[in-house]
């Protein structure tokens, strides 16, 4: 039995062949994945990733596709979306959200129950899996703040870790270091006045609208280097508006690259390389990507 037969038999996943990554990532660029599947259960996610190992097929788990740049040459393996694994469970002030839950849905849920803790992350277009994996953050807050426990898959086994075992740092966790698959995260929130939570949501949205672009982007492209803002450094070099093909540095924020309908992944990568070169030359700072770059360019 081969890979496709075993996937069909053991997971019941519908394998799509040669699926364009344009539809599954925020930039709308990238080539085809050899295989693509929408997982609806953790079992499917686990078995499919194990079968990839068995058949030596690369496997990439994606959430909302808002932090990933796939090469125009595509991905010679299986891409699995977790969007279909989307459930929220509540016990008092504790909420467990599975990997495919959109962060916005979690924030809406907390608002409904007058719980405070994640509203400062409003506007990050992430899934819980993606956000926890990279410890997403904004406005001096991070998703890890209210986490008490995370479930993940490591080498086919379900692992439960308390927060202090997750090694959360700025845009980092044990999960992205080990390339584990996030299954769910449990948060503990405090009760608060819903009007006040909503006011914070609205103020974050207003700041984002003023200082960050609304077009196609992957959010900030680079991590902030120690003591600096990457956006400010890039802006300082006059790179806002700098364009390669259909990719340009946002006029609103130097750390965002926005794409138009003609853009390719290569345009984005070339612009990234250009920015890194200029920042290194002028400031002697090595910018590190916050986004994930997948495949051969
Ligand atoms: N600035 C400029 N020019 C620019 C951009 C920023 O002068 O083009 C200045 C701002 O005026 C401000 C300072 O740089 O004085 C910091 O800018 P900002 O508040 O926008 O914060 P940031 O460090 O650039 C970080 C996160 C964002 C998050 C904002 C909101 C990183 C890499 N970025 O940006 O997160 O939304 O704070 O507080 O940590 C992301 O991670 O994808 C992301 C967008």
Question: What keywords describe this structure?
Answer:
single chain; 297 residues; alpha+beta; 5-stranded antiparallel sheet; 4-stranded mixed sheet; 29% helix; binds uridine-diphosphate-2(N-acetylglucosaminyl) butyric acid
Description:
- With 297 residues, the protein is of the alpha+beta class.
- The chain is built from 8 helices and 19 strands.
- The chain has helices spanning 3-11, 42-54, 103-112, 128-133, 174-178, 194-211, 230-236, 265-283; strands spanning 16-20, 32-38, 59-62, 68-70, 75-81, 88-91, 94-98, 115-116, 137-138, 141-142, 147-154, 157-162, 181-188, 190-191, 216-220, 243-244, 247-249, 256-259, 292-294.
- The strands form 6 sheets. Strands 6-7-13-11-12 form a 5-stranded antiparallel β-sheet.
- Helix 1 runs antiparallel to helix 2 (42-54).
- Uridine-diphosphate-2(N-acetylglucosaminyl) butyric acid is lined by residues 138-139, 211, 219-220, 223-224, 229-232, 235, 253-255, 290.
Give a quick summary of the entry.
The chain is an alpha+beta fold and 297 residues long. Helix content is 29%, strand content 28%. It is built from eight helices and 19 strands.
